[in-house]
Amino acid sequence: MFDLNAAWVLIILSGPLLAYGVVKGVFIRPMSGLPLQTIGMLTFSAAALVALAVEPKVGALLVAVALFAHAAWDVYHHRVNRVVSRSLSEFCFVLDTALGIIILVTIA
Question: What residue ranges are annotated as transmembrane (predicted)?
Answer without folding.
Answer: 6-27, 58-76, 88-107
